[in-house]
Amino acid sequence: MLGNFTYCNPTKLYFGKDALNGLNAELPKYGKNVLLVYGGGSIKKNGIYDKVVALLKANGKEIYEDAGVMPNPTVEKLYEGVERARKANADLILAVGGGSVCDYAKAVSVSVHCDEDPWEKYFIRFEEPSCETLPVGCVLTMVGTGSEMNGGSVITNHKAKLKIGHVFAYEKIFPRFSILNPEFTYTLPRYQMIAGFYDIMSHILEQYFSGTDDNTSDYIMEGLLRSLIHSALVASENPTDYEARSNIMWTATWALNTLIAKGKDTDWEVHMLGQAVGAITDATHGMTLAAVSMPYYRMIMPYGLPKFKRYAINVWGIDPAGKTDEKIAEEGLAAMEDWMKKLGLVMNISDLGANEGMLDDLTEATLIMQGGYKVLTKEDVRAIFKASL
Q1: Where does a domain end: 166, 185, 204?
Q2: How far is CA 193 from the centre of its chain?
Q3: 51 lies in a domain?
Q4: Are residues 206 and 343 in the same domain?
Q5: Taking the CB of the first residue and of the last residue of the chain, which one, N or C, has fewer CB atoms within 10 A?
Q6: CB 209 within 8 A of CB 293
Q7: Same domain, 129 and 245
C-alpha cells in the first residue's frame, strides 16, 4: 500500500428483505419535514412508494414531494429541487430510486443553503460546501452507481453539452443511511438492469487499472469482479434470483464506497468518455460506458501490460501456457467482450444516437484525467470515439 490516507465512511446500511424497517430506526433522528425525492413514478406502480409513505407517516413526518428526477438529472431540475427543499424547510431528503435520484438528492443537499449558483460552484469550480447541508437518506431501487454509500453527484447541463460528476470529500454529503432490499430491484426493465451491471464493472476496473498496482485493493477487486461476472449472467436469465441480485447489490456498493481506491491512483477516463456521450445523446449511463470501454482498454493495454495479463488470468481464467503476455492480455479483453455481448450491452455509441458529425463535440466534452497507464491526448479521445462508432 502506497502513500498516506484517511478512510471514513459514515453511511449506515440496512440490507435484506426487511431492510425498509430501518427507516423506523433512522427517521426519529431528524426533524419533522421530509423532502421525498423520486423519479418517474415507477415506485408508485410497484408499491414501494406506499410502503415508504406509510413509514414516514407512522413516524410523524410531514411529507413534501419532489418527483420527476430523470435518469440524467439536469441543472434545471436541480434548481427546481433546491426551491422545493427551501419551501418545505426540509430537515431530511429521502431519495427513493436509483443512482440518479441519490446523486440528485446530494446536489440539492449542498445547494439549499448556498447563495451561489450550484452548477458553477460545485460542477465547474469543484468547490466543497461552505454552507450548511441537509442530511440525505436513500432507499435503493436500482444498483450500479454506488451512490448509496459515497459522496458522488452527477449533473447534466445540456446547454453547455456537459455531464459532470463531483465526488464530494465532505463526509456529511454521504447518505446518512441507505436501505438496500434486493427485491426492490426486481421490476427494473432489463435494459436498465444490465446497464447497471456494467456500471458496477466499470467502477471496479477504473480503480483496478492504474499506475499503483499490486496492493490489497487489487485482490479485493478481483474477487468482486468474479462475483459480478457470475451473478450478472444468472440474473440476466432469471431477474428474480434473489441470491444473484443480492450479490450484485452488495458488489455495487463496495465497488464505489471509496474502500478499494485507498492506496491507489485511479483511472476514471472511461467515465469521462461515457459522460460525454451521455451529455450529448442523453443515453443511459451504463450503456455509454459499455460502448466506449473496449476501444479504450485496447488503446491503453500496451502501457499497462502486466496488469492486463494479471486481469486475464485472475479474473477471466485465461490459460497462460505457451502464450506471450500480449496474447494473454488480448484473450482477457476478448473474454470480457464476449461476456458483455452475452448480457446484451451496447457495444457502439452509434446505437446510442451518436454519429460521426458529433465527434468534435464528444471530444471537447471529454475531460482528460490523470492516474491511468496513459494520459490521453485529444487525438486519442477522438480516435476512441471513432472506433466506438
Answers
A1: 185
A2: 13
A3: yes
A4: yes
A5: N
A6: no
A7: no
Q: Are 220 and 323 in contact (CB under 8 A)?
A: no
* Same structural domain, 237 and 323: yes
Query: Would you state the torsion angle of the CA atoms of residues 212, 218, 224, 229, taken in this order, to the nearest 10 degrees?
Result: 80
In a domain, 7, yes or no: no
In a domain, 30, yes or no: yes
DSSP-derived pairing of the beta strands 162-167 and 152-157: antiparallel
**CB 320 within 8 Å of CB 339:** no
Q: Do both 24 and 82 map to the same domain?
A: yes
Same domain assignment for residues 103 and 237: no
The boundaries of the domain holding residue 206 are 193-388
Q: Taking each helix axis from N to C terminus, what angle separates 190-208 and 242-255, rounded to the nearest 10 degrees? A: 40
For residues 245 and 249, give the distance between their C-alpha atoms in angstroms, rounded to a whole number.
6
Place of cell 440525505: 136
Evaluate whether 248 touches 180 at the Cβ level (below 8 Å).
no
Q: Specify if 46 maps to a domain.
A: yes
Whether the predicted model's global pTM rises above the 0.90 cut: yes
Q: What is the pLDDT along the chain (389 residues), one digit of tens a residue?
A: 777 888 899 999 999 999 999 999 999 999 999 999 999 889 999 999 999 999 999 999 999 999 999 999 999 999 999 999 999 999 999 999 999 999 999 999 999 999 999 999 999 999 999 999 999 999 999 999 999 999 999 999 999 999 999 999 989 999 999 999 999 999 999 999 999 999 999 999 999 998 777 789 999 999 999 999 999 999 999 999 999 999 999 999 999 999 999 888 899 999 999 999 999 999 999 999 999 999 999 999 999 999 999 999 999 999 999 999 999 999 999 999 999 999 999 999 999 999 999 999 999 999 999 889 999 999 999 999 999 99
Task: Mark which of 185, 214, 241 sits at the end of a domain.
Answer: 185
